[in-house]
């Protein structure tokens, strides 16, 4: 064994931010008067290895965030998994466990299942109870991937199915209520997990609003950070707290939890109004127009994640892209000059080094889009 060398990343604070002019318009129109992972050498790279017995998990319990001197990060060599089909992860039997999902990294179906088992306590609150849209890559990234909204293909019994009325038919959606069910998605060949903004017990009343900041290829990271900061400031003026996460792509998601009291049309109108106010504040930098042509140097403020049946990638979900990127919740003060990127290989290290869950208060926050806030946004 040899001690692994860890590189601690320091996220510098964003430069001083001046409130943009569009916030004045909002103020004027509002009601305001005043288990740690061990690593195995895999070919020439180091990949996470999560042994089935005992299972190594990363806990979300805030009392267990402190680093332990008696549980160092280690590099260890271990035998490969047996070539049989009798490999079990989170109590679920995996078939074709040696199938390559990320061929350039050598990451297999078993590696992906063990990743979700290890971070199960972290991802489950983000997906539990929500209808899913999935990116299905049955042959890994070497084959075609398709979006799968309805549960037309076979799936393990650990996955729940819900029937949802759509415009022209009733669709059947999958729901993952446990870590075993999430591993069941891996067994099906799913690489990305996308979730609704509502749950079946309040299906027509979203409990969150999401803005997807999607930059063109010529947009620098500093402008993406500025866009997220502007959006957060606008929401704060309206009395709403926001959280942020990476997307596993080039952009960021700004997420606002809300009490499920407004219907889809109201939430969409609110999200659209905020997005358009940012666009109007600086049309050369922002757009709400979706065609990619002509927005290479602009940030799309995508508000359509808030339309009924539309979804967004779940926190801690992998993406069907090279290098196995992952969407990860972060703290606002982590936004700085260094672009934030996380992968299957780095997420566990991040979780074990955290002093606190950056989204801990997200789950405790109960806030509403008030009538005054809706009126203010409509006036922008």
How would you describe what is shown here?
Helix content is 23%, strand content 21%. By secondary structure, the chain is α+β, with helices and mostly antiparallel strands. Helix 2 runs antiparallel to helix 4. The longest helix is centred in the last third of the chain and has 18 residues.
Basic shape: globular
Number of beta strands: 20
Element-level helix/strand string:
EHEEEEEEEHHEEEEHEEHEEHEEEEHH
Secondary-structure class = alpha+beta
Instruction: State the helical fraction.
Output: 10-25%
Radius of gyration (Å): 21 Å
Count of DSSP H/I helices: 8
- Proportion of residues in β-strands: 15-25%
Quick take:
With 380 residues, the chain is α+β, with helices and mostly antiparallel strands. It has 8 helices and 20 strands.
Please specify the SSE layout and strand pairing.
Layout (H helix, E strand, L loop, with lengths): L1 E2 L17 H8 L9 E5 L2 E5 L24 E2 L11 E3 L2 E3 L5 E3 L4 E2 H10 L1 H8 L4 E5 L9 E3 L11 E6 L4 E6 L3 H10 L1 E6 L12 E8 L5 H17 L5 E4 L5 E6 L6 H18 L4 E2 L11 E4 L9 E2 L15 E2 L16 H7 L17 H9 L1
Parallel strand pairs: 17-18
Antiparallel strand pairs: 1-4, 2-3, 5-6, 7-8, 9-10, 9-13, 11-12, 13-19, 14-16, 14-18, 15-16, 15-20
Task: Record keyword descriptors for this entry.
380 residues, alpha+beta, 6-stranded mixed β-sheet, 8 helices, 21% strand
């Amino acid at each position: 064994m040899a001690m692994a060398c860890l590189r601690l990343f320091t996220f510098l604070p964003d430069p001083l931010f001046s409130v943009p002019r569009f916030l004045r318009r909002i103020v004027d129109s509002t009601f305001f008067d005043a288990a740690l992972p061990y690593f195995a050498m895999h070919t020439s790279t180091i990949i996470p290895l999560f042994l089935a017995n005992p299972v190594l998990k990363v806990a979300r319990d805030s009392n267990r965030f402190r680093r332990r001197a008696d549980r160092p990060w280690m590099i260890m060599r271990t035998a490969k998994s047996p070539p049989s089909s009798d490999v079990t992860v989170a109590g679920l039997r995996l078939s074709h466990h040696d199938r390559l999902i990320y061929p350039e990294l050598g990451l297999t179906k078993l590696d992906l299942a063990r990743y979700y088992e290890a971070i199960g306590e972290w991802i489950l609150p983000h997906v539990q109870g929500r209808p899913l849209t999935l990116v299905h890559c049955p042959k890994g990234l070497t084959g075609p991937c398709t979006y799968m909204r309805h549960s037309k293909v076979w799936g393990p019994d650990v996955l729940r199915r819900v029937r949802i009325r759509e415009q022209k038919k009733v669709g059947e959606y999958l729901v993952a209520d446990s870590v075993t069910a999430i591993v069941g998605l891996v067994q099906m060949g799913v690489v990305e997990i996308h979730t609704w903004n509502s749950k079946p017990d309040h299906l027509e009343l979203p409990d969150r609003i999401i803005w997807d900041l999607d930059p063109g290829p010529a947009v620098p990271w500093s402008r993406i950070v500025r866009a997220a900061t502007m959006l957060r400031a606008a929401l704060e003026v309206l009395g709403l707290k926001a959280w942020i996460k990476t997307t596993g792509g080039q952009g960021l998601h700004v997420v606002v939890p809300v009490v499920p009291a407004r219907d889809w049309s109201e939430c969409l109108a609110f999200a659209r109004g905020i997005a358009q106010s940012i666009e109007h504040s600086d049309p050369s930098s922002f757009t709400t127009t979706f065609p990619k042509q002509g927005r290479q140097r602009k940030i799309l403020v995508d508000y359509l994640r808030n339309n009924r049946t539309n979804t967004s990638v779940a926190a801690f979900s992998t993406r069907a892209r090279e290098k196995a990127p992952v969407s990860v919740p972060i703290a606002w003060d982590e936004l700085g000059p260094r672009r934030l990127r996380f992968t299957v290989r780095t997420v566990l290290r991040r979780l074990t080094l955290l002093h606190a869950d950056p989204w801990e208060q997200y789950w405790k926050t109960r806030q509403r889009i008030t009538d005054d806030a809706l009126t203010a946004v409509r006036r922008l």
